[in-house]
Design goal:
The complex is a heterodimer of chains A (308) and B (236). Chain A has a domain of 208 residues. In chain A, 79% of the residues lie in helices and 1% in strands. Chain A has 14 helices and two strands, in the order H-H-H-H-H-H-E-H-H-H-E-H-H-H-H-H. Chain A has a two-stranded antiparallel ribbon with strand order 1-2. In chain A, helix 2 runs antiparallel to helix 9, helix 3 packs across helix 9 and helix 11 packs across helix 12. In chain B, 36% of the residues lie in helices and 25% in strands. Chain B is built from nine helices and ten strands. In chain B, a hairpin with a 2-residue loop joins strand 1 and strand 2. Chain B is globular, with a radius of gyration of 18 Å. Chain B starts with 6 loop residues before the first strand and ends with a helix. Classes of the chains: A mainly alpha (308), B alpha/beta (236).
């Protein structure tokens, strides 16, 4: 039982410290931590579909962008409060996931990844085209408002929710069924598992967090444009974070988000030109040397449960 | 012959491009019997399995299970109706534990599913390895695990694709005994097998395929002396 208590107490202590942090932190500290929360939401959500089912979503930033635009339009054109707009951003992302997931999750292997890549490009083009609503290439400005600290808390809460949801899924039979899709989809179907439905549920769940995070980020930055909320680099970053930390685990995406974000900040500040090079090097190193990620390796070597 | 058939296949035909893998095969399986499906390589045995279980769509013909049409259904729907199968190449879920491999299969309440899974693992003497990843088990152990995984749903019809391949004698005898026990409990078993000793010793009726056609059907003793069967295996 004591191990279990530590497993509960340690995250709780970290959460309390982070809740108290804005009272003592600099503006930079709060914004950087807010970014870490956002990456935990994105990486953790990507892990739900791709880490568990093995279906690699190469356009997951599309949900972030959809949430950002849905939220920003409500805030700027309809005067909605940001918290309500953020929740609708999550809903918008789920609706998009339903429309896209239903046909695309029938595609196997690399075809799903390519379809998701295409989705992101299509959305970016659509947003640029419907200027009346979105401002097109000129972007969309939100009314001035300094809400960084409340947004910090809401983003933090979203991150905690994604982690908790991951824990619940991974320890359930629903989660095990998602893993059978990754392990052997043909065998899963032969055993009576409705894989299409399971994939769709996982996909819907994986869209909520990025949708909320997108709307919160739009509010925090006060301005969005197509290239700022639909960048392929964001999808790649969340993938690398999960692969680095350990896909299919609870804390792997968190570890990846923290380590990679901090590395990125440090390197980017000191060596702006080397930064993309270093990031590329990390991708290659992870894929070649430890395809399971840090926690994945520990899990196998020390026979730890997936809930690490 | 009075009881309704468990499985009835009528004039099933499946083509891959210009090749007709299964060519108008009809079969009828009665409850609580063990059937064998034999034939030279490429005669359509596994394709027939895949058509029954919905992995392949048939081009012509009908498949009825317990009087109900199952062709055209998705594989998971057919499995839920009560047809279980194993694969020629082992397909356990390697990064799930032995116990989890069984638990994922049913929708029963977790406690009941656990109890059933543990009983099945004991049945094949794998209960000591229940928390081991399936991928770390030996070939024979994985084969047994795949076998009991099929039983988790308590299917009425069980299709076994080469259960004896690569299995040592002791394990094989256990497996064959388990198959007989299932038959005694009312299950119907259809197995593809190359080991003639297994087929002749276990099956009550044997179907012989050659070039996608059913060329013979009958008791093992009769099949062995059938001219067309001998010709299919050894040539004229």
């Amino acid at each position: 039982m004591s191990g279990r208590h530590v497993a509960l107490a340690a995250p709780a202590a970290v959460a309390l410290a982070l809740a108290a942090y804005p009272a003592v932190a600099s503006g930079y500290g709060v914004r950087a931590t807010l970014q870490v929360f956002m990456w935990i939401v994105l990486a953790g959500s990507w892990n739900l579909i791709s880490g568990l089912t093995g279906y690699v979503s190469f356009g997951h930033v599309a949900f972030f962008g959809a949430g950002a635009y849905a939220g920003a339009i409500l805030m700027s054109k309809a005067g909605w409060p940001w918290l309500a707009a953020a929740l609708v951003g999550g809903v918008a992302a789920v609706v998009l996931a339903l429309v896209i997931g239903y046909p695309c999750l029938r595609l196997k292997g690399p075809y799903f990844a390519i379809a998701m890549l295409g989705l992101n490009e299509v959305l970016r083009a659509l947003v640029s085209y419907f200027e009346g609503l979105t401002g097109g290439g000129n972007g969309l400005s939100l009314p001035t408002l300094d809400a960084t600290i409340p947004i910090y808390y809401v983003m933090g809460l979203t991150a905690v929710t994604v982690i908790a949801l991951t824990y619940l899924i991974i320890t359930s039979r629903f989660g095990l069924r998602l893993m059978t899709i990754r392990e052997d989809e043909v065998a899963a179907e032969a055993m009576g598992i409705d894989t299409a439905r399971h994939k769709l549920y996982a996909f819907l769940l994986s869209a909520v967090g990025p949708g909320i995070a997108g709307a919160l980020t739009a509010r925090d930055q006060g301005y969005i444009e197509p290239i700022s909320v639909f960048p392929l680099a964001t999808t790649i970053t969340m993938i690398v974070m999960v692969l680095f930390g350990g896909k299919g685990t609870v804390w792997g995406p968190v570890l990846g988000a923290v380590v990679l974000f901090v590395t990125q900040e440090v390197v980017w500040a000191r060596y702006p030109y080397v930064h993309p090079l270093l990031f590329g090097a990390i991708i290659v190193a992870v894929v070649l040397l430890m395809p399971r990620g840090v926690l994945g390796i520990l899990q196998i070597r020390y026979r730890l449960p997936r809930t690490i | 012959m009075a009881s309704p058939p468990v499985l009835e296949i009528e004039r099933l035909r499946k083509r891959f491009g210009g090749v007709t893998a299964v060519d108008g095969v009809s079969l009828r399986l009665e409850p609580a019997r063990i059937y064998g499906l034999i034939g030279p390589n490429g005669s359509g045995k596994t394709t027939l399995f895949n058509c029954i279980t919905g992995v392949e769509r048939l081009d012509e013909g009908r498949v009825h299970f317990g009087g109900e049409r199952v062709h055209g259904l998705r594989p998971w729907e057919i499995a839920q109706k009560g047809i279980g199968r194993t694969f020629q190449v082992i397909r356990v879920f390697p990064e799930l534990s032995a116990l989890e491999n069984l638990l994922v299969v049913t929708r029963d309440r977790l406690a009941a599913a656990r109890e059933r899974a543990l009983r099945l693992l004991r049945f094949v003497k794998l209960d000591g390895l229940r928390d081991e990843y399936a991928g770390n088990l030996s070939y024979g152990q994985q084969k047994l695990l795949e076998f009991v995984r099929v039983l988790m749903r308590d299917p009425a019809l069980i299709l076994l694709d080469e259960p004896a391949a690569g299995v040592n004698r002791t394990l094989l005898n256990d497996l064959l005994e388990a198959v007989r026990q299932l038959r005694d409990r009312g299950k119907t078993i259809l197995l593809v097998e190359h080991d003639m000793k297994v087929v002749m010793g276990l099956c009550e009726t044997v179907f012989v395929l050659d070039h996608g056609e059913k060329i013979a059907e009958g008791a093992p003793g009769v099949i062995q002396t059938d001219e067309r069967v001998i010709e299919a295996y050894f040539g004229r």
